[in-house]
Amino acid sequence: MSFDKVVEFMNKAVGDGDILNLTRSYTKDVNGVLTLLGGGVCAYISDLVLENFTVTPLAGNTSGIDSLFLKVANSSITFALGCVYRPSSSLLKDDITLFNQICNISNSYDKVYIFGDLNLPNVDWPISGSRPYSSSSQLLVDLLLNSHLDQLITQPTRFRSNQKPSVVDLVITSDDSSISNLEYLNPIENKDTKTLFKYIRITLSGPVKTVKVKDAAGMVNENSYTVADIFADSFAKVFTVEPLFGMPNLSSVCNSNSITDIKFSADAVSEKLRKLKVIKSPDDIKLYSSSANYRDLERDLRAIYDWTHDWLLPLNLDKCKVLHLGNNNPKHVYFVDNLLLSCTDSHVDLGVVVTSNLSWTEHVQRVASKANKMLFLLTKTFSKASPLVFSKLFKTYVRPLLEFANGVWSPILQKDILCLESIQRRATRFPFGINRPPYCERLRLMHLCPLSDRRKRGDLIITYQALSNSFSPMRHLFPLNTSDRTRGHPLKLPMICDYTFLSTEAWI
């Protein structure tokens, strides 16, 4: 049995079975008729409860207050049910009319059960006779005392921000012995009733059933295969039969049954190939050498040019660049087909920006810009994501941009480290809003860790893979300590004692 304030659109065409299955519904607004824009109260009673009972609405009009009173009777028992919603802006004269009607009903029936929201939060339950109340609250207290009615709700039912929890939803009865074991559940939502309505819709919605469809003979079918055929025939009507007179005619008909009779004309194939517009150039060829061996590099350039010329794959000289590494580099000039190759201070190779001074600042700025753009799109698309959901989005779309090819590059300057970490710091702020916890706590709640820790973890993984695999192409980059003075496992790296590495951050 349920009593509710009606807040959905209703009209007279809505039947009892359309609202809830296996129930009878009784609705009434403030004027005693159904309204279009919500309003009123309604009662849903299971058919199992009403199997041997007759329900009759009781006459009465409480202007300004939504109320519904029902007489429920069978051969052995008769009682009254009531559902009331009193708005907080109700007038005193309307309150007097309502309480007089409740008093008359309690005098006419031995058992009375009234449920509703009376919006009188200043009444203390159980009733304390020493405290003064407002006019409407005092009317309710006098009604309960004079009519020998009990109000059974004693714990707060309304929880709103910046307000003290209060009791506004009441259960009034003349027979408190028939109602026992009241259970107070946690509020579904503090202030928004949309969550409750969503829960009700999800609860009432079951699996999708096959719709009933009439066939060509007018018979109603609910068999899934028959219904599918009816829909398929209906959809097929939009396709028309096209005539064949517009089909091109073949110049000659081949009557051969053997595939060996197909003939190709070499001249025709050559003509077709000559008309193809294809950019024929190899991509991503790298040559490197010490500046002292620049003659070897020039010889390699001539060899590549000759090979591409012989195979009709000319080099795109606009994309050919020279990158001089080191501050003391003599910066030799190089030519291809008597054309000078242009020099550059930085170059993007497989997504990594390599500069002439081998600094990663420019690469850090590039990946930070891409990550910030992706983070902006996520914040606009998922404006109300929870911390765990946004953490998954960050791990999927943003963090890979910050960690791509981490084994090749790693920031050393503090400004670069802070630049990368600031993106993750900004991402953790979004799901918490203004009142957010500290950064370390946000990382814990979102199951994240600092990016510097992940870079160290990645370096350790690469080192382990290089040392544990004898055929690793990186094995020669990690010389082992062959001294007998150390104990433990044999996979130990020697300590480099050089002034050059004093200011370099440890990467392992």
UniProtKB/TrEMBL annotation:
Gene3D superfamilies reported in the protein's UniProt record: Endonuclease/exonuclease/phosphatase
Gene Ontology MF term list: catalytic activity
Domain of life: Eukaryota
Classification via InterPro entries: Endo/exonu/phosph_ase_sf, Endo/exonuclease/phosphatase
Domain Endonuclease/exonuclease/phosphatase: 83-184
Protein name from the UniProt record: Endonuclease/exonuclease/phosphatase domain-containing protein
